[in-house]
Amino acid sequence: MQRSLIVLMKVLPRVVLYGVMALVVPFYMLINRAGYRATYRFFRERMGYGPLRSFAGVYANHFVFGGVILDRFAMYAGKTFRFDNAENDLIMEKSAEPGGFIVSSSHVGNYELAGYTLHCSGKSLSALVFAGEKKTVMDGRRKMFSETGISMIPLMEDMSHIYEINRLLDEGQIVSMPCDRIFGSAKFVEAPFFGETARFPMGPFSIAVTKGVPMIAVFSMKTSLKGYRLHARPLGMSGVTRAEKVASLAASYARELEDVLRTYPCQWFNYFDFWKK
What is the DSSP string of 21-37? Predict the structure, then answer.
């Protein structure tokens, strides 16, 4: 199926596949009931939308999510996109400084495509990725990442990826880690988020504090059929104790995530109740 999609991307205009997707989205909304309810509550309870606008928001969210997936395979098929990298200077500046740092990613916009366009002067960038993706996706990632000098760190159940992350940071390199899902882990940190308290994975923030390295939040947001805009913001750290520093980093990340979502509310691809206790 995925290989067929890559072939279609090579022979059909992207707008045709987008049109087909527009017809498919309502059926997916009916099937993915849990995701529909979580997204609807986000628009109603967090964004303060009315019922009709919230329903339209759910449709737009699913449509953009489908577009992001199509764009990933379009990239595998050799298609190109326009990237407004106005904020890439921050990454370039950090890359020129001694020492490594962590780039915090999220299930927002199309972060994978951002990785294909980031240029980090003098440093390698390694991305922590879910190892259970389909072979076609992993092969496509390897091909695209190899062209930009980016490598993958598979997320392993035995936590061996932590050793690789520490090694790279010790060598002054850049590591990209997702920071918006805990996947049932007992280790989390709480931070204010859209007026409530939400849980974020402790791991990335804890590593940054332990290694004494800075963190940058990067978001790649879809702006048109073939366009994206890169947003990169430094995360602040304060406090005396280790726990205080971890909490301050998580709170800074939550503020940046909320800020970008208020601008692009339909591009948070979170299909579960984020605030559920």
Answer: HHHHHHHHHHH-HHHHH
* Residue position matching structure tokens 């759910």: 58
**1 Cβ neighbours under 8 A, 6+ residues apart:** none
- Which tens digits make up the pLDDT trace of 135-182? 555 565 566 555 556 777 877 777 778 889 999 999 999 999 989 887
Contact 110, 222 (CB under 8 A): yes
**Token pair belonging to 215:** 């963190």
**Does residue 195 come out as left (phi exceeding 0), alpha (psi in the -120 to 50 range) or beta?**
left
DSSP letters for 126-174: EEEEETTS-HHHHHHHHHHHHHHTEEEEEE-TT-THHHHHHHHHHTT-E
Q: pLDDT (tens digit, 9 = 90+) per residue, 99-142? A: 899 999 899 999 877 766 666 667 788 888 765 554 555 565 56
Q: How far apart are CA 187 and CA 276, in angstroms?
A: 16
Compute how many other C-beta atoms are within 10 angstroms of the C-beta atom of residue 18.
15
Query: Buried b / exposed e across 64-76, counting CB within 10 Å, b at 16+?
Result: bbbbbbbbbbbbb
140 within 8 A of 113, measured Cβ to Cβ: no
Rounded to two decimals, the pTM is: 0.88
